[in-house]
Specification:
Length: 479
């Protein structure tokens, strides 16, 4: 038994690195390692070069994969799904000339002021604010929503019919003060849903622009402006929406798209992150209104305007002092005091996109309205002349042409670490025929090399110590 142990020890001590390598390449599962025989040097060089190139490319791939993973890449998927019913958006519409002329401009000096705050202000002379008329008629007093209600056109004379899926919903309209004056929103709470499609169904309105009574708006235009938006969301009709001239029927066809973007750490919009508005710790910067890009931009513009003017125009979100007529003119239209106009607001605002959005694409077409027969009927029904009807009436249809929702989602390229491992494993298998087990084989080979090197060093040191002791012993006995 002792002899066997001694023979084994001697064999281990006589093991060389070449024998260790031959044992490794004979059992290694990686492609090409078994062909690296040092006895056939040319063949060994070829296989060693191939192995080195494959290993180098694998290391390069691992670097690129690591960089890509840290960038949090994503893909965008789009699909269309059919639904049995669909939530209808909110609809906000405004008469582009919403004020009652008899209450807004009974005097030529009123007309001078209103022209001076219109897009034609550059060709209007300065307002003579020293005239007592402006002081006596409240031009220096802060305005309120009550002023708009007093000066706006009669609602019952403007809105003649509003139907949704052939049901009368005129009583569900809500007043909305904007820079255009008094506007009206239907389905502000989002309670309306529909299972019907086509321009004969959904939202239908008959409106009268009242050109005999109304007075010009901030856009110096005549007609209707309508915006389709998410319920409970600020309509921002000053910047969005579509126009309908009087004497037209407008067919506005809708398509609905839901957007789901990836939140932090994914950059959903180039170098910008989306805002996760449904998170528990989300703080809404435009409270009390729900967060939206439109609401954020208006809040930002209102803050900027308030800092510059000490007041804001009517129709802004938040508790601000409303500008008087004088303040509005001085801050926005008086070239001697400011070169900033209303159109330049709100300026650059940091308003991130929410991670969940619903948008509505609108396609509008027009036809002359009314026909001769419809004109005669409306003349007898409302007591207006046929010429008046053609110059003032608008028939507005807003509808879905099919019950489908477009769904756009951002999907991470690496849904989990398993995807990263799968990519690495695929490249290892393609280039080297290697797996995790192969890596263990390599690790075992290097451990064996270290152990062998350690033993050889230890044996040399031991032998050296023995020689030194023998020499010391011989020197001692000689003396």
């Amino acid at each position: 038994m002792e002899n066997k142990m001694d023979l084994k020890k001697v064999k281990e001590n006589n093991t060389t690195f070449l024998e260790l390598w031959n044992n490794f390449k004979g059992s290694c599962t990686m492609h090409g390692v078994g062909h690296m025989s040092f006895t056939l040097r040319f063949r060994c060089v070829i296989w060693l070069a191939a192995f080195g190139i494959s290993t180098g490319y694998l290391l390069y791939f691992l670097h690129e994969e690591s960089v890509a993973y840290n960038k949090r890449p994503f893909m965008t998927s789009a699909s269309v799904k059919s639904v049995a019913s669909i939530q209808f958006p909110a609809v906000t519409f405004c008469n582009m000339s919403p004020y009652n002329k008899s209450k807004v401009a009974p005097d030529p000096r009123d007309s001078t002021y209103h022209m001076a705050i219109s897009p034609l202000s550059s060709i209007v002379g300065p307002v003579n604010w020293s005239d007592p008329y402006y002081q006596d008629n409240g031009y220096f007093r802060s305005r309120t929503n009550s002023d708009i209600k007093y000066k706006t056109l009669d609602k019952s004379r403007m809105i003649l019919m509003v139907l949704f899926d052939n049901k009368d919903v005129i009583g569900d309209l809500e007043e909305k003060v904007t820079r255009y004056g008094m506007c009206y929103t239907w389905n502000a709470d989002g309670s309306a849903t529909t299972t019907s499609t086509g321009n004969a169904m959904n939202f239908v309105a008959l409106l009268n622009m009242n050109s005999d009574q109304n007075y010009q708006s901030i856009d110096s235009s005549k007609g209707l402006k309508a915006a389709v938006h998410n319920p409970n969301e600020h309509p921002a009709i000053e910047d969005n929406g579509f126009l309908v001239p009087p004497g037209r029927m407008a067919l506005a066809k809708l398509s609905k798209t839901t957007h789901s973007y990836l939140g932090t750490p994914f950059k959903a919009f180039g170098d910008d992150y989306c805002l996760y508005t449904t998170a528990d710790d989300f703080v809404n910067p435009v409270h009390p209104s729900p967060y939206s890009i439109n609401a954020c931009n208006q809040k930002c513009g209102a803050d900027s305007t308030y800092q510059r003017c000490g007041c804001v125009p009517l129709g802004n979100i938040g508790n601000y002092t409303i500008c008087s007529h004088y303040q509005y003119y001085q801050c926005f239209f008086n070239a001697s005091s400011s070169s900033t106009t209303v159109s330049s607001l709100p300026g650059a605002c940091n308003c991130p996109q929410p991670c969940q959005q619903t948008t509505y694409d609108i396609s509008v077409s027009y036809a002359l309205f009314p026909s001769e027969e419809a004109g005669s009927f409306l003349e007898s029904r409302f007591g207006f002349s046929k010429e008046y009807v053609k110059e003032n009436f608008i028939e507005l249809h807003i509808y879905f042409d099919y019950l489908k929702v477009h769904d756009v989602k951002q999907v991470p390229v690496y849904a989990s670490s398993k995807d990263l491992l799968a990519n690495i494993g695929g490249q290892m298998g393609l280039l080297l025929g290697a797996s995790l087990m192969s890596l263990l084989e390599i690790a075992e080979f290097f451990v064996n090399c270290v152990v062998l090197l350690t033993k050889k060093c230890w044996n040399k040191l031991s032998n050296l110590n023995k020689v030194c002791k023998v020499k010391e012993y011989g020197n001692t006995h000689q003396n």
